[in-house]
Amino acid sequence: MPKVKIPRKSTIVDMTAMCDVAFLLLSFFILATKQKPPEVMTVTPPNSISSKVAPDKAILITMTKDGRAFISLGDDTKKKDVLENVNLTQSLGLSNAELAKWSKEEFYGLPLGQVKSSLALSTPIAPARLPGIPIMDTTKNELETWLRSVTNVYAGGDQRELQEMLLVKGDGETLYPVFNNIKRAFKRNKLYKFRIVTNGEVVPIGSELYRESQTVK
Does the pLDDT of residue 80 top 90, yes or no? Predict the structure, then answer.
């Protein structure tokens, strides 16, 4: 008997719809992804073994190895209120327009007495040229002022949430007196808990922490 010939079908697959979906997903992730905010300075924090991730809305104090301190107000819902409180309590005399311009800055590293004049500049001061927030003089630690305004704005809320937002990031070569003055600024505002940002390390195999993590799994 003659063999039955099975008709051959085309193996061509139209990928147009798949490409459209792929580009739509790519566009979504590009637009929806929150970009990491720029850092004040490049600092190399010490290493540690930690699994906690820093929150997106963080109040970050950065210490450079040459002793300068900066603050970043990551919670955009409270940022303007904090700046207005600093302006009011320190009598900076900033107008609404100056406050609006000030709120667009990603970080703050000027003595309060220089803020108004800096806002009058056509171009912002480069981070490398900022003197930092004065903290070395124990009689006038301006970081205390910043943290006092933070506590004023967040008063009445859950203090545990505020403590989770307080981060300190310092270069591994930063001298202890700088860190000690930052601790003093927290303490004088009755903020007794904050987290230190470090570079994560892999848990050493065979260590007690490693065995605990294996037990949890």
Answer: yes
Burial class (CB in 10 A: 0-12, 13-18, 19+), 177: exposed
Q: Are strands 59-63 and 69-73 parallel, antiparallel or unpaired?
A: antiparallel
Give residue 166's identity as a one-letter amino acid code. L
3-state SS assignment for residue 34: coil
What angle is formed at CA 132 by the lines to CA 117 and CA 73, rounded to 5 degrees?
85
Does 88 score more than 70 pLDDT?
yes
- DSSP character for 108? B
DSSP string, 48-107: E-------SS-EEEEE-TTS-EEEEE--HHHHHHHHHHHHHHTT----HHHHHHHHT-S-
Q: d(Cα 100, Cα 84) in Å, to the nearest integer? A: 10
CB atoms within 10 A of CB 49: 13
Structure tokens at 56: 């997106």
Q: How far apart are CA 109 and CA 133, in angstroms?
A: 5
What's the pTM value of the predicted model, to 2 decimals? 0.72
Stronger pLDDT, 44 or 57, i.e. the higher one: 57
